[in-house]
Design brief:
Blueprint (H helix, E strand, L loop, with lengths): L1 E8 L2 H6 L5 E6 L4 E7 L7 H24 L4 H23 L10 E7 L2 E7 L3 E6 L2 E6 L18 H4 L1 E5 L5 E7 L1 H7 E2 L4 E2 L1 H10 L4 H14 L9 E8 L11 H10 L8 H10 L6 H8 L3 H13 L3 E4 L2 E4 L1
Antiparallel strand pairs: 1-12, 2-3, 3-4, 4-5, 5-8, 6-7, 6-9, 9-12, 10-11, 13-14
Helix pairs in contact: 2-3, 10-11
C-alpha cells in the first residue's frame, strides 16, 4: 500500500502581489497509484488553472493507460501520446477562457506505479527523487531552456521532445518517490552536491507511523514556517511511500506522540498519559463504560481521548467496542 502526502503553499513573493498559488499537486489510487506536480509559469497569467488541469489530466492518463505507455517500444510514441493528451486539455481550457494557450503554461512531473512497474515523467524544472535501499537519490533534475532562469513548459514549442520518460520493472527496490517544485528545491535540495535534505527521509519514516491526514497537517505547517522562508516562489511537494501496516500506537516514540498532540491542537481533556493507559487496556476490545471504569476517569473525558486516537487512526470502533489497531 502506498501512503501519499503532499502540500502546495503560496510563496512570499506571490502573497505580496496577491498572485494565486501556481504550484499544484494531484494524486489518484486504485489499480494504479499515481501522483503529479505542476509549477505554473510565472509569466503566464492563468498558469494556476493550467497547472491544475495538467496534474489532473496526467493522473487520469497514467491511471487509464499505464500498460499502453509502459509497453511502448518507441519513446517518441509515448512522448507524443502524453503531450498530445495534455495539450488537447489545455486548448480546451484556453477556449473556455478565451485566452491563448500559453497563458496556461506549466511544468509537469509525475510518478505512476502498477504492480511491480513504475513510470516516471518529467518536463521542465523541479526535482524527482526516490529513496532506494535507504538512500535518497535524484531520478530526474530540472531542465533549463535557452536561458539559465528559463525552463520548458507544456506549451513550449516541441515540448514533447523534452518530455523525459523513465520506467522500471523492479519497484520493490524503491521505498519512496517524491516530486518537488523548484521553490521547494531551494530548501530541500542542493544541486551542487546532488543532495536531498534528511527531512525527506523523516517524512518517509513518519508515513509508516501516522495517518496521511496527520502528516499533511504537519507538512503544511513545516512548509509555511520553514521551507518557503528560503524563496519568494510557491513551494510544493508530493510523496508516495510504501507502507506495509496500519498506524500503530505501540510504534510511537514520545516525540511521535507529542506530534499527535500538536496536530490535534492540544484537545481538551487529552493527554499522552491517558493514551498510554487506554491503549494498554485495549489489548482486548472494551466499551466506553468499561474504559471509564478501568481508568477511573469521567466518561466524557474518555470519549475525548478515544475520539482523538480514532482521528489519528490508532483505534477503531465497531459494534459498541473500541479496538486497538
Amino acid at each position: 500500500m502506498w501512503s501519499i502526502i503532499g502540500t502546495a503553499v503560496q510563496g512570499r513573493g506571490h502573497a505580496k502581489k496577491n498572485i494565486p498559488v501556481q504550484d499544484k499537486i494531484y494524486y489518484k489510487r486504485g489499480e494504479v497509484t499515481v501522483m503529479a506536480l505542476a509549477d505554473g509559469a510565472g509569466s503566464a497569467s492563468l498558469s494556476h488553472y493550467g497547472a491544475e488541469r495538467v496534474t489532473e489530466t496526467i493522473c487520469a492518463l497514467l491511471y487509464d493507460c499505464f500498460d499502453d505507455i509502459f509497453e511502448m517500444n518507441e519513446v517518441e510514441e509515448a512522448q507524443h501520446m502524453v503531450m498530445d493528451t495534455v495539450l488537447n486539455e489545455l486548448h480546451q481550457l484556453a477556449e473556455s477562457h478565451q485566452e491563448p494557450v500559453k497563458a496556461f503554461a506549466s511544468t509537469l512531473l509525475a510518478v505512476a506505479v502498477k504492480g511491480n512497474n513504475v513510470l516516471i515523467l518529467h518536463l521542465g524544472d523541479g526535482e524527482i527523487g526516490t529513496i532506494k535501499h535507504g538512500k535518497r537519490m535524484n531520478l530526474s533534475s530540472a531542465e533549463n531552456g535557452e536561458y539559465a532562469n528559463a525552463t520548458i513548459f507544456t506549451t513550449s514549442q516541441h515540448a514533447w521532445r523534452h518530455l523525459r520518460l523513465f520506467k522500471s520493472r523492479d519497484v520493490s527496490s524503491f521505498s519512496s518517490f517524491f516530486l518537488m517544485s523548484d521553490g521547494t528545491a531551494a530548501s530541500l535540495y542542493s544541486k551542487e552536491r546532488n543532495y536531498f535534505s534528511p527531512f525527506i527521509s523523516k517524512l518517509a519514516e513518519q508515513s509508516s507511523i501516522h495517518k496521511e491526514q496527520v502528516l499533511n497537517g504537519l507538512l503544511e505547517e513545516s512548509f509555511e514556517n520553514l521551507v518557503k522562508q528560503k524563496t519568494q516562489d510557491d513551494c510544493a511537494l508530493v510523496m508516495m511511500t510504501m507502507v506495509n501496516e496500519s498506524p500503530s500506537y505501540a510504534k510511537l516514540t514520545r516525540s511521535d506522540k507529542e506530534l499527535l498532540v500538536h496536530y490535534l491542537n492540544n484537545p481538551k481533556h487529552c493527554s499522552i498519559k491517558k493514551w498510554d493507559k487506554m491503549t494498554e487496556l485495549l489489548q482486548q476490545p472494551l466499551t466506553l463504560k468499561q474504559l471509564a471504569k478501568a481508568m477511573l476517569v469521567k466518561r466524557s473525558y474518555v470519549k475525548a481521548n478515544v475520539n482523538a486516537l480514532m482521528k489519528a487512526g490508532m483505534i477503531t470502533y465497531q459494534k459498541g467496542k473500541y479496538y486497538l489497531n
